[in-house]
Amino acid sequence: MNKLFIILMLFAVSISSRGQAETLSNTADSLLKTYQNSVFQVQLIETQSGKKSAIGSAFLIADNQVVTNFHVVSAWVHNPKLYHIEIIHQQHGIIKVSLQNFDVINDLAVLTADKNLSSRTFALADVLPDQGDKVFSIGNPHDYGMMVIPGTYNGITANSFYQRVNFTGSINPGMSGGPAINEAGHIIGVNVATAGNQMGFLVPLTHLQTLLKSTSVPLKHSALKGKIEQQLLASQNRFFGEILATQWQTSQLGRHQIVTELTPYVRCWGYSNSDKKDALFEASEVNCRSQEQIFINPKLRTGNIEIEYSYIKQDSLNSFQFSQLLKASFSGVAPGNAAGKTDVSNYHCQQDIITPPPEGYQKSLYCVRSYKKYPQLFDVLYLAVSHSSNNQDALLSHYTLAGVSQPNAKRFLRRFIEVVK
Q1: Which residues contact residue 344 at a Cβ distance below 8 angstroms, ignoring those fewer than 6 apart?
Q2: Domain locations in the chain as residue ranges
Q3: Secondary structure of 247-307 as H, E, C letters
Q4: What is the pTM of this model?
Q5: CA quadruple 238, 240, 246, 251: dihedral positive or negative?
Q6: Residue 23: what pLDDT?
Q7: DSSP run (H or E) holding 16
Q8: 38, 68, 335, 415: which is deepest, by most CB within 10 A?
């Protein structure tokens, strides 16, 4: 190939790439200039000290109506006497706002300012981007000031029950609640979380549209906990309704039949020590869990499910050593969601021991703790160990259901016991 031709081709590619980069930069810059007075920092102010205890971002959707994430203002929801909420407007300075509506499942909140903000409002997009289209996230990362972050739109995250849009861009702390917009400046989602490595997540536009349609009169604080419980109950009914309506997949682990993927939302991973030649026993594990949780407050997350199995087979341990191994494994099980003492009660447990000779015996423990502020919701912890009469092998089963109603918890238990054999 002619060397001059190659040089000209490389030069053309360089010019083209530089032109695309400049176009992207110009678009981002123009969008930020257009909407810089319409994106705000949200501050949760601790009343006693007058200092901020949490920050996020927000954007203007109507004359005095602002959108952010629920988790940004959740501390006020649970302790209104300790906090108040402010936004910082570039022209008007600090403005107090109140909570008008929220969607705890999809982590959205609508705030109302006590004055007209006189800024340009964002419009909602009529059409969602295609996968790979450029989108821009705006927010105040780490309290460094408003920034615009370019990235690409990749649609709803696969196998996601609590739907999120996958955004290939950096959404850092402080950007939560900020707008994600297309090149026309129209809202296509709301910043919510990051998984690092240029992997961010947005609340889909459809959930914001639904919330805005239901927003009218500001909520009284006395009604907030009831509304949270109502939303959580509706969500877990839909979640467990889908799980209990499907044909559960099973697989073999040792001599036992176990449940694996209940739905696409619950993924399973496996492990064994088969590569360790000096091990005193064979161990195989299967861990299945949903990837998402619902944020209630910094110490309480709920809405997830976790199932774990451990199969142990041995011929080197005596009966005492084998029983101690099982006891240690049994006592090391913990719930799969975070909850503090102010949020949940202690676990109350019921134990059963079944001895059907000559196969061996099964010991099970069914534990329940209640949500103090949401009395129709519970966390359930189930443990069972089954082992042969000759102490040669055993299966330990464990599951956690977080934020489930009593009827759904009972239906799940019955189904689990029927399938795991």
Answers
A1: 300, 369, 370, 371, 372, 379
A2: 35-219, 230-419
A3: CCCEEEECCEEEECCCCCCEEEEEEECCCCCCCCEEEEEEEEEECCCEEEECCEEECCEEE
A4: 0.87
A5: positive
A6: 46
A7: helix 3-35
A8: 68
For residue 360, the model assigns a pLDDT of: 61
Give which of 92, 177, 90 is closest to 139, Cα–Cα. 177
- Residue 22 CB neighbour total at 10 angstroms: 10
Flag residues of the chain having pLDDT under 70: 1-26, 354-361, 389-391
CB 367 within 8 A of CB 379: no
State both tokens at 13. Answer: 């590619």
The span from the CA of 169 to the CA of 151, in Å, is 5
Query: What is the rounded distance in angstroms from the CA atom of residue 313 to the CA atom of residue 42?
Result: 56
Q: What is the pLDDT of residue 356?
A: 58
Q: Are 67 and 58 contacting, i.e. CB atoms less than 8 angstroms apart?
A: yes
Residue 175 contacts residue 141 (beta carbons within 8 Å): yes
Q: What is the pLDDT of residues 162-207, one digit of tens each?
A: 889 999 988 888 999 999 999 999 999 999 988 777 788 999 999 9
Provide the CATH number for the domain formed by 35-219 in this structure: 2.40.10.120
CA-to-CA distance for 262 and 247, rounded, in angstroms?
8
Tokens read off for 372: 């103090």
Task: Measure the CA–CA gap between 68 and 87, rounded to whole angstroms.
Answer: 11
Sort 72 into a burial class: Cβ within 10 Å, 0-12 / 13-18 / 19+. buried
- Dig out the tokens for 45 from the structure: 């102010």
Q: Which residues, in sequence order, are bridge partners of residue 52?
A: 45
